[in-house]
Amino acid sequence: MVRIKRAYEEASTADGCRVLVDRLWPRGVSKERADLTEWLKEVAPSPALRTWWNHDPERLDEFALRYRAELDSQPETKAAVVQLRALAAQGVTTLIYGAKDPHVNHARLLAEYLEE
């Protein structure tokens, strides 16, 4: 099972394996508070794609297509996806992200991608 959770929410034992999936560390969150199992920057959207998207809800559908293409094509991203799927196969895995909107963020799209 793959879940998503904002980095600014309290960690919980129900989160299982906690994996930060952003390229940048969330501001103001200590390593202790984050309580991460892993930080996989490689599964985050490329800087160019993230800049183009700019978390614009109107671009979400096109962003999703481009992001999936990145997940499918880049060798380092593919390896990180394999690692995430292996973690998820062992139990609950929570993808940690820093964005404000729980619906307009790449972690939600990544969770859907992993569960397919």
Q: What would you say this structure looks like, in words?
A:
The protein has one domain (about 1-115). Helix content is about 45%, strand content about 15%. The chain has five helices and four strands. The chain has helices at about 30-35, 45-55, 60-75, 75-90, 105-115; strands at about 1-5, 15-20, 40, 95. Strand 2 (about 15-20), helix 1 and strand 3 form a beta-alpha-beta unit. The longest helix has 16 residues, at about 75-90.
Helicity level? 40-55%
Order of helices and strands: EEHEHHHEH
Q: In oligomeric terms, what are we looking at? A: single chain
Within the largest sheet, what's the order of strands?
1-4-2-3
Radius of gyration: 13 Å
Average predicted local confidence, pLDDT = 94
- Count the domains: 1
C-alpha geometry: globular
Largest sheet: 4 strands, parallel
Distance between the termini: 11 Å
- Unreliable stretches, pLDDT < 50, 5 or more residues? none
Q: Strand-residue fraction? A: 5-15%
What's the number of extended β-strand segments? 4
Give me the secondary-structure category: alpha/beta
Helix run count: 5
Furnish the topology, listing elements before pairings.
Layout: E1 2-6, E2 17-20, H1 31-34, E3 38-39, H2 47-53, H3 60-73, H4 75-90, E4 93-97, H5 106-115
Parallel strand pairs: 1-4, 2-3, 2-4
Helix pairs in contact: 3-4
Please name the defining characteristics of this protein:
116 residues, alpha/beta, 4 strands
Brief account:
44% of the residues lie in helices and 14% in strands. It has five helices and four strands; from the N terminus they run E-E-H-E-H-H-H-E-H.
